[in-house]
Amino acid sequence: MKRIVTVSDLHCGNIAGLTPPNFNPISVEDAKMSGYRATLYKWYQDEMDSLQPIDIVVCNGDAIDGQGKKTGGVEQLTTDRLKQIDMATRCLLDTHAAKYHLTFGTGYHVGPEEDMEREIAKNLDAHIKDVLTIEARGLTLKWRHHIGTSQTPIGRATALLREQTWDLLWAKDGEFASADVLTFGHAHYFESVTNRFGTIFISPGLQGLDGSSFGGRRMGGIIDFGFLHFDVEDDGGFSWECHRLLQTPVVRKGKIDQFVYEGELVPLG
Fold this sequence. Notes:
Layout: E1 2-7, H1 31-50, E2 56-60, H2 81-93, E3 99-103, H3 107-110, H4 117-123, E4 127-129, E5 132-136, E6 139-144, H5 153-172, E7 181-184, E8 191-195, E9 198-202, H6 213-218, E10 226-232, E11 238-244, E12 248-252, E13 255-261, E14 264-267
């Protein structure tokens, strides 16, 4: 069996991004978020430990958050992208995978000119692609970061079926082989569709629910924190699981200051 873990949208450097313990400052100014980040990372680490051994980890874009120019940097734990790269590298190394692959994320976050995620790939001795294809036990799996999003549940499935149809049409023209499994990121929610042509996913993100205007002001519907793992059997059989941290926010005076995790209140601070 080959075990493949897909992580997406870590947004390291954002105040709600995935943050390893040694990059998580505890200060008066940041007290409301430091405990939240620590809880998210502990869940992430515990889940990865439970999946060992992991053969491959695919980081499907937006590993770092960038300088936050649209918000004046006020939502950044750090605007230093080199430090963000170190954070993302640590996050991926903490999966203890035998091998790593990456795809390029959104230019606004990862650098419209530089493609800063290349540095993460160098740190991990990994490949980074626009579209990543892996052949495993006769199964063809593809990853790309970007996909269209929707604020309606029906539209979320439509975007997946559209991408699958284009993949099949390109294959029909002989450009490349169609995928049995297609996985996207970008949307920060989980969705999947299975039909006779294969299975298509939008992977959950690993940026927290609270702490950013994306999560608090812009993003309608359900936001999912988590990741996917795939098991490919020796005969090409395929199974998968979505790992999600279900967060029930507790809102006081219009702001989330606690959330429910495993039946207990966890304060943001």
